[in-house]
Amino acid sequence: MVSPAVNPKRERPQSFSATENETRSVAGNGSVAAIVVLAEEVGMSANQPDGQNQLLGVTRYSALVFGVLYGVLHRRTLQAKYDADVEAADLRKREHWVEQAKKAWAQKNSKSDGVISDPDAPGFDLEAYLKSLE
C-alpha cells in the first residue's frame, strides 16, 4: 500500500473487491466507501483470508473463556481464605468467652469460708452470707 504522503489521490489497494461506484450506490452518499478506505489504510482489511479470521475468533474466545475461568477460580480461592479467617476469628472469640467464664467461676467459688453466696442454691443462708461480707 502506498502512503498518503506519497500518493495524494489515496488509491485503494488492489485487493478491494467493490468499486467506488458500487459502494456509493449502496450507501447513497459514499460514507461507507470512506469508512472502508480508512479501515484498509490502518490495516483492517475486510478481505482477510478465512483462516486468519477464524484464528482471530478462536483466540478471542479462548482468551475470554480463560479469563472467566481464572476469575471463577480466583474468587473461590479468595472466598475460601475469607471463610477460614472468619472461622478462626469465631474460634478465638469462643475461646476468649470460655476463659472469661472460667475466671468468673473461679472468682465466684474462691471463697473458702464455707458460706454459700448463691441465693438460688438450696443451702443458702442469708445471715451467714451477710456476716461473711462484714
Residues in helices, as a percent range: 55-70%
The rounded Rg comes to 42 Å
Helix-strand category = mainly alpha
End-to-end C-alpha gap? 109 Å
* Global geometry: rod-shaped
How many strand units?
0
For the biggest sheet, the summary is: none
User: Which whole number gives the mean pLDDT?
Assistant: 76
Task: Give the helix tally.
Answer: 4
Helix-strand pattern: HHHH
Low-confidence runs: 21-27
Our estimate of the beta-strand percent is: under 5%
Q: Could you give a quick summary of the protein structure above?
A:
The protein has 134 residues and is mostly helical.
Structure notes:
The protein has 134 residues and is an all-alpha fold. 64% of the residues lie in helices and 0% in strands. It has 4 helices and no strands. It is rod-shaped.
Offer a few descriptive terms.
mainly alpha; 134 residues
Q: How would you summarize the topology of this molecule?
A:
Elements: H1 20-27, H2 31-41, H3 50-108, H4 126-133
